[in-house]
From TrEMBL:
This protein's record includes keyword Signal: yes
Alphabetical UniProt keywords: Signal
Annotated signal peptide: 1-21
Protein's name in the database: Glycine zipper 2TM domain-containing protein
Top-level taxonomy: Bacteria, Pseudomonadati, Pseudomonadota, Alphaproteobacteria, Sphingomonadales
Length: 69
């Protein structure tokens, strides 16, 4: 399992652009806490999921505001 994580991590770092996502830090913190409560070793997965979920929320909110204007 660690081998897969070590192989995938550099690839994802190269594929993503620098994070300028609004709320990503807050979502990552909440996801890390939730992942830690779920079980040992799930904090990092929770942080990634929390960042993605909050970024999606803010992006959807920004699109809705752009359409209204």
């Amino acid at each position: 399992m660690r081998f897969v994580a070590l192989a995938v991590l550099p690839l994802t770092m190269l594929a993503t652009s620098p994070a300028s996502a609004k709320g990503c830090i807050r979502g990552a913190a909440a996801g890390a806490v939730a992942g830690h409560m779920v079980g040992k070793g799930h904090a990092m997965l929770g942080a990634m999921a929390g960042c993605a979920a909050i970024h999606h929320h803010y992006a959807k909110q920004a699109r809705a505001q752009t359409v209204r204007k």
